[in-house]
Design a protein that fits this description.
8 helices, 3 domains, binds adenosine-5'-triphosphate, five-stranded parallel sheet, EC 2.8.1.13, Rossmann fold, transferase, SH3 type barrels
């Protein structure tokens, strides 16, 4: 029997994933990653749920304490990005380094042929594709996973709707029902409220500063640059403005922000580095997502010296350095790169 290691979070998707793979005839084992050093009962509660599911299915489960790696690769990067005035994407880092890095290594060490998760995405071992449930699709977050990892990945949720998984799970017995009654996990697993609450633990974010317009005129005040991301339009003052103003850039060095009217935030060219490509081509046409919840924008990409220059067919608004540009052809992810600069 082929073995599959399932990354189990204590949530419904990964719990149903384990059930489905067992029904398909795989030998299933689970692994729970302790990603943070939390002492508030968070891990204990997740592990209890996993234990119940494991008992119900009659499977083995492991606990892997990976908090040190997670802190270094994901958490510190997240905090530092805000200090540097960029907008991070911790889930993308986690998928590459932790879930399909360290957790995959763990699965292989335990002689599993595959690592399955409850992500909403598809893979054929060569590429990643959007999931059928477009409202839950997580292909964006998976696009930095190394090409070498793809043949080992399984996403049994790929063709399902989240609501159907919840309905299905609630009928599987008490251990599953309990999980469906939990609150949905938050978007970023270590952010309980808002990102600024996390950053506050590491820096004094409430240091008022000056707001400039694009011509360099002092036009107002703000609460501290770390409160803002590109495209934000609230929480700062612009004296005498009749139209809404948006954050155009953040300057950590002197704690200033530059704001402009909507049209001044429109950009046509995006530069990105640290590429992770699933194709060999260096000049191609495709569509690109410049943040998770954005539309697919038609573009032309040219890659040179591990840098991508992305020429958009139509201008985009509020594109932030630090976010990921993910390249698609139809539903297929062909690669991704981290945004460094944008130009009109
Ligand atoms: N702490 C963890 N340990 C092991 N695997 C995890 C952990 N957190 C997440 N995963 C895996 O990654 C998948 C996607 O994570 P995400 O945080 O998006 O979960 P989710 O959408 O809330 O899913 P679930 O309902 O399974 O929690 C999960 O379905 C699970 O397979």
């Amino acid at each position: 029997m082929e073995k599959v290691m399932v990354g189990m979070s204590g949530g419904i998707d990964s719990s149903v994933t384990a059930y489905m793979l067992q029904k398909e005839g795989y030998e299933v084992e689970g692994v729970y990653l302790k990603l943070h050093n939390r002492t508030d009962g968070y891990h204990e509660s997740n592990i209890k749920d996993i234990e119940n599911v494991a008992k119900f299915l009659g499977i083995k489960y492991h606990i892997l304490d990976i908090a040190e790696d997670f802190t270094k690769e994901v958490y510190d990067y997240f905090v530092n990005s805000y200090l540097e005035g960029t907008t991070p994407n911790p889930c993308v880092k986690c998928n590459r380094q932790i879930k399909f890095g360290k957790m995959l290594d763990f699965a292989k060490e335990h002689k599993a042929s595959y690592l399955a998760t409850g992500h909403y995405a598809k893979t054929d071992g060569e590429f990643i594709y959007e999931a059928d449930d477009k409202t839950k699709d997580q292909s964006y977050f998976l696009s930095q996973v190394e090409k070498e990892a793809l043949p080992f990945m399984m996403f049994p949720m790929s063709t399902y709707k989240k609501e159907d998984i919840v309905k299905f799970g609630s009928k599987l017995g008490d251990s599953y029902k309990r999980i469906t009654e939990k609150n949905e996990s938050q978007e970023i697993c270590f952010v309980d409220t808002v990102y600024t609450d996390v950053i506050k633990k590491h820096a004094n974010i409430d240091q008022p500063g000056v707001v400039f317009d694009e011509e360099g005129n002092e036009v107002g005040t703000h609460k501290g640059y770390m409160h803002y991301t590109i495209g934000k339009r609230r929480g700062f003052t612009v004296h005498g403005a009749h139209e809404p103003h948006f954050v155009k850039s953040l300057n950590p060095k002197d704690n200033t922000i530059i704001v402009g009217k909507k049209e001044s935030l429109e950009i046509n060219i995006v530069e990105a580095n640290n590429l992770n490509m699933y194709i060999e081509d260096t000049n191609f046409k495709c569509t690109v997502k410049l943040r998770y919840r954005s539309n697919l924008l038609p573009c032309e990409v040219s890659i040179k010296n591990d840098k991508a220059s992305i020429k958009l067919k139509k201008s985009a608004f509020g594109v932030a350095a630090g976010q990921l540009a993910v390249f698609y052809i139809d539903e297929k992810v062909i690669g991704s790169a981290w945004i460094t600069n944008t130009f009109k």
